[in-house]
User: Fold these one by one.
Assistant:
Number 1:
Amino acid sequence: MTRIAVIGASGYTGVELLRLLLLHPDVEITSCVARRNAGENVEALFPSLLDQCSCVCDELDVEVLAQNADLVFTALPHQSAMEVIPSLLDKGLKVVDLSADYRLKEATTYAAWYQEHTSPELLAETPYGLPELYRKNIAQARLVANPGCYPTSVALALAPLLQEGWIDPTNLIIDSKSGTSGAGRDAKVGSLFCEVNEGFKAYGVASHRHTPEIEQTLSDLAGESVMINFTPHLLPVNRGILSTCYATLLKPATTKELIERYQTFYADEFFVRIHAAGSLPNVAYVRGSNFCDLGLVSDPRTGRVIVVSAIDNLVKGAAGQAVQNMNILLGLPEKTGLTVLPLFP
Amino acid sequence: MTRIAVIGASGYTGVELLRLLLLHPDVEITSCVARRNAGENVEALFPSLLDQCSCVCDELDVEVLAQNADLVFTALPHQSAMEVIPSLLDKGLKVVDLSADYRLKEATTYAAWYQEHTSPELLAETPYGLPELYRKNIAQARLVANPGCYPTSVALALAPLLQEGWIDPTNLIIDSKSGTSGAGRDAKVGSLFCEVNEGFKAYGVASHRHTPEIEQTLSDLAGESVMINFTPHLLPVNRGILSTCYATLLKPATTKELIERYQTFYADEFFVRIHAAGSLPNVAYVRGSNFCDLGLVSDPRTGRVIVVSAIDNLVKGAAGQAVQNMNILLGLPEKTGLTVLPLFP
Amino acid sequence: MTRIAVIGASGYTGVELLRLLLLHPDVEITSCVARRNAGENVEALFPSLLDQCSCVCDELDVEVLAQNADLVFTALPHQSAMEVIPSLLDKGLKVVDLSADYRLKEATTYAAWYQEHTSPELLAETPYGLPELYRKNIAQARLVANPGCYPTSVALALAPLLQEGWIDPTNLIIDSKSGTSGAGRDAKVGSLFCEVNEGFKAYGVASHRHTPEIEQTLSDLAGESVMINFTPHLLPVNRGILSTCYATLLKPATTKELIERYQTFYADEFFVRIHAAGSLPNVAYVRGSNFCDLGLVSDPRTGRVIVVSAIDNLVKGAAGQAVQNMNILLGLPEKTGLTVLPLFP
Amino acid sequence: MTRIAVIGASGYTGVELLRLLLLHPDVEITSCVARRNAGENVEALFPSLLDQCSCVCDELDVEVLAQNADLVFTALPHQSAMEVIPSLLDKGLKVVDLSADYRLKEATTYAAWYQEHTSPELLAETPYGLPELYRKNIAQARLVANPGCYPTSVALALAPLLQEGWIDPTNLIIDSKSGTSGAGRDAKVGSLFCEVNEGFKAYGVASHRHTPEIEQTLSDLAGESVMINFTPHLLPVNRGILSTCYATLLKPATTKELIERYQTFYADEFFVRIHAAGSLPNVAYVRGSNFCDLGLVSDPRTGRVIVVSAIDNLVKGAAGQAVQNMNILLGLPEKTGLTVLPLFP
């Protein structure tokens, strides 16, 4: 049994990690770190885990973690993550980081969208943990940068078209919608039930920090620099991201042809599901699972293709993908502990 | 008191008309037609109107309506509307039609997206009832074609930019999201609570029937033929449409400049509200009201402008706008009966 | 025009007062007090009021209020209310208080459930502002204690049966469910969207502070001391309270007889609506309105009657009832500004 | 691998059975019967199962089932179930019936609340499949009557108190609230999103068919005939039942004593979780799991105890409990395939 520590156990990503890890056959949780809730039982913070998790929240103590754990998940805000990760690596711990701190390859880009990076020397060695696209880089890493929720939904949606040059990379519009758990468990007026329920809005228009992360992956896939318009919206649901991606086809292609292209590209990927023509993804169909569902429509009137992707932002968009990365790091079958089916309705 | 009949009183648009008309100081409802519910009390169909509406649902009888009413709202599905409207006009009744039957100017376009038109001779004389853009055409009409919900949200969002040629009309992406009341009160599996709640999906991609209606108005504003990508989505809220519109600026403009342009363009329009820079519309802020809220962001990185509009699909997107058109037809102040403020939260 | 000040304008009850008062034909809002938001525009706090409210939030200054206002609504937490109300009265202002501070007649009861009362001398003169039951006491008052949301829903549900002794006052069970706006606009983890949505729970079991307020009114109606079990629950809706009340009939009565009793009792009450046999209230049917809907079922198997009441907690349960009390204080028709119909769906 | 057939696979209970059985290590689904959808792929009906279920919906053919299956789940409406079950038993198939047809011991009671029973001879031999209370009766059965959702939540809530005579069985009030999936997947106006969302109502007051089923179990536990008031309500959530039960204590007991009593009673029951004093169940904490959470409060003012129970109506209230019964019938550990943790948020 590999011993696992979760730092940042008191947020929604944290409890989702616990849900998945508690059912995982090859690991055991040995430490839960949550500064603000130190001393509290995890099951008191999350009664969904009543009788299923005996952990007590700890203060962060790298020495203790080095004794008790083999691998650490850091589910912290950006900046907080890079304050602790180098010392974890120094102790020989493997780390899957769910923050944004090690996702961008260029420290200057990080500085432009976040703040100065305090351990830029780690960026080059740290793989971007999107296994379907970068699996080979992950297995030997000390530190894996688990992708953002929006970027996961967009990269998987556009990879096949970009990689083979079917679409114009200079004219991409990404309109994304996320469930409210993406905003975290912090007590903020904007996340209150009455502010979100029966509402819908765009936010972070032309300024959301996931923009450079998306552009980095799309540029890598296209083999040239890609600049996008990315607009996130807040959905009145707990879980789920749906991204609607608009691209101009460089050569005509029918919906059927596009779907076949995707089926081939993702033929070996258990977690990517391609909808048949006439069917489209819905965040309700992936709830609680690690699936990314994709649907395509070609519009011959305008020469554009519309790709729709759906994930659960807490699973494939965060904790599930992190466990998938952990499985790769540990040499386990990638699906281990991640075969739970979507909860519908 | 002008005497009003509502045909199609048993749907969500119907009950919304009743809500607004019952509070209107200058009209009285004399007839409610709802074939499937003939003989039933309106307040039994809609207990929200308990003790406030003494109407009983009638079968459709044009002779009776000609005796009892001066003006008729037709809240029927397309095709059903054009089966009855010519006979209402023959009796001298004024009609505000909430269906799609008289919105498209070209019978061939109508035929391509719906079916053969059975009274194409009425299309030329029938104004498109979007008062903010076509007010002058409405006052003298016999029949007004009340716009669709999505088209209203899009036309008001893009009119200022298109009319003065600030954006490229050949590269428009419209990503819209509608509350579930837009799907009507018919018992369909896809509209069940458990299918919609906690879900989100695109539908009618590249094929929704509001596409030609939107394109007709945008083409008229641009002075040239416009073709768009329009993608509707289903939101798990009762009411509201949010449209996110992407356009390429032909000359650079800051967010501030764009907002000022909109404030000028809509300076005399009570029902159009422009958000200040940094603030964006939310369907929750227009709930139950006839307002259309607009927000803008200029993205200097990509040279695009993103315009976000929010309406209540049952009010500005249907019944409220229909009452606004009625007010114009009757020579009343346009706001009469429509000053109710949004219900938040 | 009577000049109105709202103290506590930045909460959900505050914005609901503004919504109603802005449409009221006989009053004008001259001051909005919200300490934490002093200096901010009300329409920035609540974009639902965009272009409709020019108020800026003020600090509390009793001298200024005495100059600018004739009547004040205090929408403050308990304890905060009684810190300011005596000084408002001293200035000759009329006050409608939406807090709990002046609802209980006995300062000792208040002390047992809240804390020491700092102006107990005002309790005797202050009427309990439930117009349907205590209208005559209100007209001449300086200060009106606007009832709690749960107590309103329960008192109107049980008044007819208790007043004429049809039920056993010693065996009453009240099971109530409230929408989340009742928890206020404070940023608390328990009020976050993801904590409330798709959830449902009881809270404050056998300890909720509305218990003595309910018992006070029921005791007054019964003419003897009444003790109840009252269990509130948190509903994942923005607005609405539904109370399900269980009582033992002292003499057999059919559902039809009970409904007739209620129709007679409330015959002159515009805001109380009695459902016909076989129909029952739904919080959706009163949304945004000042109505209290009542439904009854007699169960001959057990000899009990079940009374179900529905109100909008922010309207009849708070701001609407406060305006109703204001109308009485000002000698206006009681319905003035309160005739807006429920928003359904 | 035991071969399993699911009759009624196209409803919400059906898809939940599929979700659980597809992950069960000891069974395989060999047949899905859904008359109205015969010929359709299950994954087209429920895209949540995309790529995970290769079944095609069949017509009902008892001969085929006898060849292909060892055990059958019948997820049919009452009456439809008893039309097919005797013939399944004749073929030697074991049956877990999720309908109400074999739950009541007395055919006359069944006739009074439903219709004439067509195979009353089976009632005596058929155990009521609530394992925590009737485990011993289940193992040897041919046919198990899987309990109703409401009755499960109530029986587990009250069993400890009734069995040892701590409460007065003649004065029980049960106020229950169910998520909308309990209404099934039939297209009905009352189950539409816009009718349920932002709404809350009681239904079936003093007449719901689960009443005699609840009374049967409570009477058995109490050792005397019990008559209750049972009021179901419709919650705007997909899943979950919360029952609030009111009983009069025959001897004083503190909350702490009551909780200890429950912990002892359910000490060996994996699926029953007892909340500590001060904590109460929430349907959100059991979502997607087979847990039944219980919380208790003693009210010394009134001498009553309030017991709150929460289950997922589709899992412990239907499909999960059915799999639990299957495990018992097959001699498997009772938790097999049912250890998935609740999905929160």
Number 2:
Amino acid sequence: MYDSKMYELGAAASVIRTIFEYGNARKKEIGADNVFDFSIGNPSVPAPAKVNETICDLVKNMDSVALHGYTSSAGDYEVRQTIAENLNSRFGTDYSGDNVYMTVGAAASLTVTIHALCEAEDEFVVIAPFFPEYRVFIEGAGAKVVVVPAMKPSFQINFEALEQAITPHTKAIIINSPNNPSGVVYTTQTIEKLAELLRKKEAEYGKPIFLISDEPYRELVYDVTTDTPFPAKIYENTIICYSFSKSISLPGERIGYILVPNSVKESKAIFAAVCGAGRALGFVCAPSLFQRVAAACINEKTDLTIYRTNRDLLYQALTEYGFHCVYPDGAFYLFVEALEEDAEAFCDKAKAFELLLVPADSFDCPGYVRISYCVSTDMVRRSLPAFAALAKSYGK
Amino acid sequence: MYDSKMYELGAAASVIRTIFEYGNARKKEIGADNVFDFSIGNPSVPAPAKVNETICDLVKNMDSVALHGYTSSAGDYEVRQTIAENLNSRFGTDYSGDNVYMTVGAAASLTVTIHALCEAEDEFVVIAPFFPEYRVFIEGAGAKVVVVPAMKPSFQINFEALEQAITPHTKAIIINSPNNPSGVVYTTQTIEKLAELLRKKEAEYGKPIFLISDEPYRELVYDVTTDTPFPAKIYENTIICYSFSKSISLPGERIGYILVPNSVKESKAIFAAVCGAGRALGFVCAPSLFQRVAAACINEKTDLTIYRTNRDLLYQALTEYGFHCVYPDGAFYLFVEALEEDAEAFCDKAKAFELLLVPADSFDCPGYVRISYCVSTDMVRRSLPAFAALAKSYGK
């Protein structure tokens, strides 16, 4: 009577959502200030002031029919050109608006790209830990997910394992740097080695292997000294999936883009397939007002000081308490080894201290937990004794 | 290397788009005032003033993190409840927010519903003429399109043909009233007869047959005397697909909803499948600001006087010139018999009079043309001599 897979996807409460809802109930019981909810990756920093100023300016000064009307399916050309020029000025690339396809956020960037590329028997390689929806998107397009665990404790790519995972069916590798949930940023050396391996495999199989670079956290890197390569500059068959959700704190507005550089094999045909996939999935065009907001605010940055303060507080304190933490250069996640083998049991125990953490099993990385530090610094400070007590309960 | 079907969808210029682009080039050659472009169905009436007022109010007065943050995947519950209550007060239904799933516009309402319902070997019946993207959405979900031509000249449903088209594989019938491109509104008698037939076939095959009621033009009906039934009130297995694009002139902002009434067989499971399909296709949530705008403006109406004036002018004049026009009770389209068998040749001839009309072949209704009258009344008036001359060139 209905698609049972869609039913399962809709009926299955996600682990994160379940913890979030437990948290809301618990807050009602014991007061919001007494629950330390680190479960949800929703930006806690408001959008830059210019976002709201631009919204009001546009509705006051632009013709309503033009402002709220359809744009072309790939997006308003001026918006696309502005995005291309911004990338060119930052990364020394030579993109134009013709390379940019505006999307309804990061998830749409991924589903449209995957549906555009996907043929029968295709495999998409993901590096664990990875955002759980990758599996939903890849399987939803009828392709197979191939998981390659990252190296520990650096959480950079394990190239030996990756080389073994690539087959003649491999359509693409999906990377996400800065990473959700590890917070790790891939180094230039990692991306160069990846490019080298992919070129070797392309030559071996006589076909392109695409690198899908999922970059919603691109702008969330905390130290100027961090090595932050731009993968599309290093590997020619890179397709960028971007979202403005985290960079200017607009996750609910659903605005992002796909960038298909001219260096991509048959780039024009692939861009056309992207347009076709957007059409088939029902996207029509990205929200028109927010296309223009994104372009007007392309140089705006979210205030990173809160996230950085939270990161520093948590990393230092938790390390001191005896936790093993992956040092996060970016995103707003701290990835921590659970103090027992079963991360779910560990998270249950953490609840006794009112700490809401996410076991990383659903990120295909058992034994770890994700701490989302896109929360108030005040809450971080108040939570530290609870983390200390949790460590102590494990004899640390 | 990429999905060839997606490539074809992206590379194929739609008939409407091609005419629209010819129009833009022609306007540059001979001046915009000398081209009578009736090709595009983009609302020409601005959004009600309250839309822009609400946008500014929200960005000024609501917390930025809450306003621009994720809503739940089905949408903000207050917004969903407001929509349900509005329908209840208008149609005497008893919906709640739990029946409403917010979408990224009409196309998303359809793709999400179709993907939620679609199982192997499913057939979806459409009544010709129909919006060409129906075919893209149905085939994109892996199902088969079954076309049933409407009765002429009333363009109501041909029940004999429909009965023959329904098989044990029929998952749903899609209707669109007021209709794009015919402008026809289905009568209560039509919907009641449809309900009767579907119930009979459900009993025969021992399974539900859903009615997907695609209602983006619901609010665009010009005469208070027009019989405008609410299909979900008449047939229990109706799922409503709605969009605010036309009702408050926000086509580019991508906001709409799916409504699954409790009367639908296994409605809770189907609602879950809708949530799952939204997730798999990459929608996450509908744009958060415009969810709230839609709720705040639920009682706003676009100014229909311009559309009605245009309809009356065109229908009267064209009928007088010897054209056979379907009388449009709603939407903003006039459906006219071409003056020769080949509607494409007829539209080519119309170009000589600077009239840009859309042949209805892509709507699966050869021999007709669609005139979109969501244009300025001034252009309609100035175009009339060209229509007269076109008729005369055919000896009318």
